[in-house]
Amino acid sequence: xxxxxxxxxxxxxxxxxxxVALALIVSPWASSSPDGLEKVxxxxxxxxxxxxxxxxxxxxxxxxYAFPGFTQKSVDEETGEVVEEPTRLATALAGLVxxxxxxxxxxxxxxxxxxxxxxxxxxxxxxxLE
Length: 130
Hints:
The protein is mostly helical and 130 residues long. The chain contains four helices and two strands, in the order αααββα. Strands 1-2 form a two-stranded antiparallel ribbon. The termini are close together.
């Protein structure tokens, strides 16, 4: 392995390690406030209309940024009802799976494009890819 290829690999793995650390450590403490689109829907008064239909993410493997099966019961501050909410571990696991999954997809796409380019393919400013 050439020195340049080795440094690119080290840089990539360091970036992956940083992203995984952020997904595991920071994501559980992300704001639970509505995101921009949900806030606009609340302000414009059509959020209730959207809640009347089944959410599109119901069939997703990791719905609503939480790994399934890790929930806890808590009392809703507005309604006083007991509801099940995802734990911080569920959010961290969802971040981990999403981060590693996207990394693997990007890595596979890069390998496929590298092979498609053939022996004459060149990286930006670098030598021909092998």
